[in-house]
Backbone:
């Protein structure tokens, strides 16, 4: 089955700096790669996703890149703000309607 | 508004008891999923269903079962609760292009 590895497990940055979280996956049939943000005590919420026919996608301060050959994808957050502090999860699946295989999460702390 | 709900939100039970966690969605979507979340393990898939009468095992299905008798509900049953099943359980369904999660159920097995 699919195995998703996520690094780092914790990340601390100063407000205004950039944050990068990296994931690798094992199943070459995976075509859908979402990123979820989970605040303390809340449900995971989708923040951005990318499909295998696209190499990069951007939404304001958030961007995701995908290298299908190397089987890795990354989340980039620019100009970080304290409200970006949360746990971020990457995931992989055959398609958007299919069961997700999650990484173990990255706890991001943005200090003022 | 369409939504996904879970009940109960918190439950404490004893080892060996049968427990059922409810998940209900009003989007009329075929795909529904159960995950458990534990520190250091992220979210792990327990069971999932792609439609009525369809159920499939996920990564950590031992000790759990589901049934899908209608589109709206996917109850998760712990046949004989164990302390290792203490966790936060999330139900999810496909909403548009994303998988949308319920609010979660915190289960403690003593």
Residues:
């Amino acid at each position: 089955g699919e195995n998703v590895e996520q690094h780092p497990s914790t990340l601390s940055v100063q407000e205004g700096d950039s944050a990068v979280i990296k994931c690798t996956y094992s199943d070459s049939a995976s075509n859908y790669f979402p990123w979820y943000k989970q605040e303390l005590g809340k449900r995971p919420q989708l923040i951005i996703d990318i499909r295998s026919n696209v190499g990069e996608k951007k939404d304001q301060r958030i961007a995701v890149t995908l290298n299908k050959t190397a089987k890795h994808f990354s989340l980039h957050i620019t100009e970080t703000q304290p409200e970006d502090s949360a746990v971020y999860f990457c995931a992989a699946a055959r398609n958007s309607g299919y069961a997700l295989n999650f990484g173990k999460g990255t706890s991001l702390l943005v200090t003022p | 508004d369409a939504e996904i709900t879970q009940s109960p939100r918190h439950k404490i039970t004893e080892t060996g008891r049968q427990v059922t966690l409810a998940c209900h969605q009003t989007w009329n979507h075929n795909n529904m999923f159960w995950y458990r979340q534990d520190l250091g393990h992220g979210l792990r898939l327990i069971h999932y269903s792609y439609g009525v009468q369809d159920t499939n095992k996920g990564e950590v299905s031992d000790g759990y079962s589901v049934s899908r008798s209608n589109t709206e509900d996917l109850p998760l049953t712990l046949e004989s609760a164990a302390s290792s099943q203490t966790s936060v359980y999330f139900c999810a369904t496909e909403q548009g292009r994303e998988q949308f999660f319920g609010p979660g159920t915190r289960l403690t097995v003593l």
In short: The radius of gyration of chain A is 13 Å. The first strand of chain A starts at residue 4 and ends at 7. Chain A has a mean pLDDT of 95.
